[in-house]
Design goal:
Layout: E1 2-6, H1 10-22, E2 27-31, E3 37-39, H2 44-48, E4 59-61, H3 63-70, E5 73-75, E6 78-84, E7 89-94, E8 100-104, E9 107-110, E10 114-116, E11 129-131, H4 135-146, E12 152-156, H5 160-171, E13 175-180, H6 192-204, E14 208-211, E15 215-219, E16 226-229, E17 233-235, E18 238-241, E19 245-247, E20 259-260, E21 263-265, E22 277-279, E23 284-287, E24 294-295, H7 300-314, E25 328-332, E26 336-342, H8 345-350, E27 355-363, E28 374-382, E29 388-395, H9 399-411, H10 416-420, H11 436-448, E30 454-455, H12 457-461, E31 469-472, E32 483-484, E33 503-506, H13 511-522, E34 528-531, H14 534-537
Parallel strand pairs: 1-2, 1-9, 2-5, 9-22, 11-18, 12-13, 12-18, 13-14, 21-23, 30-34, 31-32, 31-33, 33-34
Antiparallel strand pairs: 3-4, 6-7, 7-8, 10-19, 15-16, 16-17, 20-21, 23-24, 25-26, 26-29, 27-28, 28-29
Length: about 550
């Protein structure tokens, strides 16, 4: 079987390598536009910041090494320019010689990836305008920073890549501003209240977020001097475009291959609507495994998993790819890490789910162990079935393990009740005696079962606490101008508080607020609410 693979980064090389391990008799040829294959695109921001020292560390495999290792033929600097499915041929151009040649196939795998979106605005031809997609892009930005010519930078785009680039520029002493047209950074990845927390941490780290603004152009004589936005101009020595990527599929025009928003539509076996043509990676549209709807997931993880499943299918094993959960993890400015999987509360409501969610702050490891910190966790569940729908986690520690537990739980259809009883690993350097995920599950259970009456940070921001008296119930007084109530001193009726008074119980993390509510309920107080996540997540207004 002659298999032609278009694209030589994550999905393309995974298909080729796995297929040849499954069936050595296959003749596999990779055509790739670039000079490099299988490079670590997600590592590029860390090369900019000097965390990754050498360019070679970004290159997973050279074409020569990959060919020897797998048996695949690799043709670099060769760009596919047309697909003719009726003839089972691809027309490709040698970018060094200009020669155009036809390549025949029995099976065609399109894994051409995606390219940075470059908006149609003035001034992008000036020096010090960068994108972040290939090792050469990262090298160019790092060299410019190290040369001392960049003191102030604007990053256009508040997604993972944009924030990671911003963090690494700031680490190099560059004053950095992040702009995004969306209302918040990390749009669609986190719910708004957690986005706001991230934005506050960015500001604390000296990186200014500007959301709800559009990039309108760049001014300068030879290089970038000012970045123009819909709000105001920003003095800058550089602009990094991290607005997003677009699938590399323009060459498929006239091929009859079905696409959605420029991405190739595939089924669970990565098949397109055209016989013997498959697609995987950033150029392909897959499915959300919770909703069943088309989902575009330009992630290295998605590319590798889908590529492996595709290779097994080509080898005759029929392995189905169930789709994505929207899982992601990133290191953000201010020493903050973020992880998520499954549906956010916003997305779950949009799908018509009867959602219940809880925000909590839990220890990430034993509080007495050096380097301990906290996770801000938001769990989303279906109210009727009590099944977990999504996890969002922020913290300085290993948020990836919180997201990964969520992946397993959602994939297996676990309920919040089951998660609270799971036998998680414990030792002080790694976790808490009640695992942070189980702790978060217990808090959501308290809410599900009516044992905790609460207001979420989003509800507080929307005015749900209007008419409530804020009661400071932290370990020690912490809210200026608010009445303080010591949990340990409550042994009956509290002087000055009526049994039906509306009381909003606020502590640092939310735990002591819940304990205070529990005790007040016992003594007949009927109208209390706990602020979920406490003052850690929500800034309490003076009103």
């Amino acid at each position: 079987m002659k298999v032609l693979v278009l694209g030589g980064v994550a999905a393309g090389t995974k298909v080729a390598a796995k297929l040849l391990r499954e069936d050595r008799s296959c003749e596999v040829t990779i055509l790739t536009k670039g000079a490099d294959i299988s490079y670590a695109g997600c590592g590029l921001p860390y090369y900019v910041g000097g965390v990754i020292h050498e360019r070679g560390e970004l290159i997973v495999n050279t074409p020569e090494k990959f060919a020897r290792l797998t048996g695949a033929a690799v043709l670099t600097r060769t760009e596919a320019i047309a697909v003719r499915p009726g003839e089972h041929k691809v027309e490709a151009k040698n970018l060094q010689t200009g020669e155009v040649q036809d390549y025949a196939y029995d099976k065609l795998v399109i894994a051409t990836g995606a390219s940075p979106f470059v908006p149609p605005v003035q001034g992008l031809d000036l020096k010090n305008v960068f994108v972040m997609r290939t090792p050469d892009d990262a090298i160019a930005l790092r060299e410019a920073v190290e040369a001392g010519g960049i003191k102030r930078a604007v990053v256009a785009g508040g997604g993972f890549i944009g924030l990671e680039v911003a963090e690494n520029l700031a680490a190099q002493g560059v004053r950095t501003t992040v702009i995004d047209f969306a209302p918040h950074v990390l749009p669609n990845f986190l719910d708004p209240e957690l986005c706001e927390y991230v934005e506050n941490k960015m500001a604390d780290a000296g990186i200014m977020p500007m959301t709800g603004v559009a990039l309108e152009g760049v001014e300068g004589t030879e290089k970038v001097e000012k970045v123009l936005t819909s709000k105001r101009g920003l003095k800058a020595d550089a602009l990094v475009l991290a607005i997003g990527v677009r699938p590399n599929t323009a060459f498929l025009e006239g091929s009859r291959i079905e696409m959605v928003k420029g991405a190739i539509l595939t089924d669970e076996f990565m098949r397109t609507n055209v016989e013997d043509v498959y697609a995987a990676g950033d150029c392909a549209m897959v499915r959300n495994r919770q909703t069943g709807k088309p989902a575009w997931s330009p992630m290295g993880s998605t590319a590798n998993i889908a590529g492996r499943a595709l290779a097994q299918g080509l080898a005759g094993h029929g392995t189905a790819y169930p789709g994505v959960l929207g899982t992601g993890v990133a290191r953000l400015p201010g020493g903050l890490n973020v992880g998520r999987t499954g549906l956010t509360e916003t997305a779950a409501k949009a799908e018509g789910c009867d959602v219940i969610a809880a925000v909590c702050v839990v220890d990430d490891k034993a509080h007495y162990y050096p380097g301990s910190g906290s996770f801000i966790v938001k769990l989303t569940a279906d109210r009727a079935t009590r099944k977990l729908l999504g996890v969002q986690a922020l913290g300085t520690g290993a948020v990836d393990k919180m997201a990964d537990i969520g992946v397993a739980a959602i994939s297996m259809g676990a309920t919040v009740d089951q998660l609270s009883m799971m036998d998680f690993a414990y030792a002080p350097p790694f976790s808490t005696a009640i695992h942070p995920f189980a702790h978060a599950a217990n808090i959501l259970l308290n809410k599900l079962d009516g044992n905790m009456d609460s207001i979420t940070p989003a509800e507080y921001a929307a005015g749900a606490a209007e008419g409530y008296e804020v009661i400071d119930c932290a370990l020690a007084p912490s809210l200026e101008g608010k009445r303080y109530l010591d949990l340990t001193a409550i042994d009956g009726e509290v002087s000055g508080l009526g049994k039906d008074d509306k009381l909003l119980l606020v502590c640092t993390k939310g735990k002591r607020g819940y304990l205070t509510q529990n005790r007040l309920k016992y003594y007949g107080y009927t109208n209390t609410k706990v602020l979920e996540g406490g003052a850690t997540v929500t800034e309490i207004s003076d009103g």
